[in-house]
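Ticket #652: bound-state structure for adenosine-5'-triphosphate.
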Amino acid sequence: MASVELTNVRKVYAGAVEAVKGVDIAIKDGALCVLVGPSGCGKSTLLRMIAGLESITDGTVKIDNKVVNDLGPAERDIAMVFQNYALYPHMKVYDNMAYGLRNRGMPKDQIDKRVREAAATLELTHLLERRPKELSGGQRQRVAMGRAIVRNPKVFLFDEPLSNLDAKLRGQMRVEIKNLQRQLGVTSVYVTHDQLEAMTLADILVVMNAGAVEQIGAPLDIYEKPASTFVASFIGAPPMNLIPVTSDGSGLILKDGTRIGAQGLAVTDKDAIIGFRPEDLEVATGTESHVGGLLLDLKVLGVEPVGAESYVYGIIGGERVVVRVAGRSVSQPDDHLRVIIPKEKLHLFGGNGKRL
Amino acid sequence: MASSTRVTFPNKFLPYLLLAPQLAITIVFFYWPASQAIRQSVLREDPFGLSTQFVGLGNFKRILSDPNYLNSLQVTVVFSIATAVIAMGFALMFAVMADKVIRGKGIYRTLMIWPYAVAPAIAGMLWLFLFNPSMGTFAYMIRSAGYNWDPLLNSGQAMLLVVAAAAWKQISYNFLFFVAGLQSIPKSLIEAAAIDGAGETKRFWTIVFPLLAPTTFFLLVVNTVYAFFDTFGIIHAVTGGGPGKATETLVYKVYNDGFVNLILGDSAAQSVILMVIVIGLTAIQFRYVERKVHYG
Ligand SMILES: Nc1ncnc2c1ncn2[C@@H]1O[C@H](COP(=O)(O)OP(=O)(O)OP(=O)(O)O)[C@@H](O)[C@H]1O
Ligand SMILES: [Mg+2]
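RESOLUTION: The complex was predicted; output attached.
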């Protein structure tokens, strides 16, 4: 068990591709840190630098308060679960799990004990004599987990471990990984591009964009207070609605020229963006006050009922928005709705996309 | 690859028609000569080629008790094993090293592949010129290093030379397959093994080499057949089977007895035995070696 600390970590690949641009992350002992971000933002690169599979161009990586920059992967005492699982195809499940222990010269009986314990934890006992190709995707995933936990390492590293599973199994494994991590208390770094996985797993969530960290924090803090429009649109499904506005000092003007009251909204930038979550809109019945909030006109484009809730797609001030309403929606295309965004649910971003 | 949907031709004769050219080639260039050899092997022709006589297994009996033939068998075994092992060993070593090259990968590979384009006889001549005791550059160097180099008289050295030439030519081919084999091993497996605490050598023997088994097995079959049959040109150019009969392999002896000494019956019987040996070897390889191979 150990803390992981990244200080100003950079990675420049041959050919001058700057994949990671100065990242600082501190992960406490036993915490599960999730790196999330769009494809190509440098998540895997960062993880592989922690693992020692990729050289570190600049900055330091500390595991257990010890700089590990110059240590090989084997000496860092980490275990990694790969996206494709990377099980050794010519070895039985048992040997796959025992391989790392054997390489470290552990006595046979101890290896056997550890492997059987890990197998029991992951319900793999009846599969120990099989080869990887004789397993289902979910079982392979478990073996990959098993190979990581038998070693009892200081840190677990996961690179999109669930992306090859179907949606149902993914949900199931997500819960299992979380429980297992809690139970073992091993510090973990988990890479995903799935925001739901990120939200549900993370103790500490790191949102990355183009090689840099956009925001670090507890998942719900990030959800409630995204630091930028990028984070706002990346975290949450459907994503936050973002509407560009201009300010002329006395109020906000939508793209289509509609002037909206903005009492108490201190917008000094000429260009700004207002944002609101799909679930934070209220449909006005005419009587409620909207002091401090925004009262807007929404033209309905279509409705998507998904069961417990419905998504109403529409246009506000020339911008497409999504509204989440409970149960069924009675709205029809071309309806006009009066909607209120309560002031406390309103997010304001500057023209550069940063939160105001 | 058991696919449940099978292509069916509406026309019953079409499949046979499509197979016909390949079958024709096989019949004309394999079955027909093979059957001729079998027929010839039970006949004896008089020295002038005027009359032939059926002798049953007489030819076989004679050659199998001929010490020259047994010598040639032994030479072939030594030559084949040495050639296959050296050609595959070096090819694997080069492939592993080429896999690590980052800059100019393509150039290395192209250069490695060229020897394959050289005809066997030319390859033989090349090695002959380099190591010929009277005019070879390398021979001169070896001799000035104080070593008594004379493959024209020393049978061990002659064997060394033909094995080197034969292996050298085959390395390219093996290299190509090993490179492809190495590329088909997912990088993440190597990385997982590195994290699992296996050093480079250990990774090679516990992960890479076992996963190359299908390639190695395939090459083993190909190299054996190569050493048996395709090395005639090299031996002919380098040693001509000598000194004495030190490098006379079975194929070379077939040629010598049949086309030089014109003992057609013996030569045919030998080629039949040769055919049986190769069929047997291949069958054994597929039956016993392949079982130990895990296809990824
Ligand atoms: N070996 C490499 N050489 C050069 N550039 C690379 C290399 N590996 C990755 N990159 C580049 O670095 C950037 C980050 O890649 P990385 O694999 O870390 O992305 P990622 O966030 O994991 O994306 P994904 O979600 O698609 O896996 C990308 O622009 C990629 O093209
Ligand atoms: Mg990745």
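RESOLUTION NOTES: Chain B touches chain A through 20 residues (CB under 8 Å).
TICKET STATUS: resolved
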